[in-house]
Design brief:
With about 100 residues, the protein is of the alpha+beta class. About 25% of the residues lie in helices and about 30% in strands. Residues about 1-10 have low confidence and may be disordered.
Length: about 100
């Protein structure tokens, strides 16, 4: 289980590299220049549907979406979840990183 962030808000769970999962909004978040980079998800049973990756324009082209995606996939692995990549970026990332292929449905 991941520790909660300072303040004890159980809807925000800290992940490595300052990435957190916001369970209330169902998204992984990383504060970056220009705002917050996100990877939206829906958790249904033991399936993690990754629906949209977004990075503020000021922070694009620096591998931030890839970093969030990698951490989300590692989190899914730790939780024993199956991943359903509905976001085209996540699908492309998983094709380029076969070490995560065992997470696919």
């Amino acid at each position: 289980m991941h520790p909660t962030l300072a303040g004890g808000d159980s809807t925000l769970i800290a992940l490595p590299n300052s990435i957190r999962t916001n369970t209330e909004l169902q998204r992984f978040e990383l504060p970056v220049d220009g705002g917050i980079a996100v990877l939206d998800y829906e958790l249904r049973g033991n399936k993690l549907y990754l629906t949209h990756a977004g990075t503020p324009p000021e922070s694009r082209g620096r591998g931030i979406a890839a970093e969030i995606t990698r951490e989300a996939l590692e989190w899914a692995r730790e939780q024993g979840l199956t991943v359903v990549p509905l976001c085209s970026f996540v699908g492309a990332y998983m094709r380029a990183h076969p070490e995560f292929s065992n997470l696919l449905e």
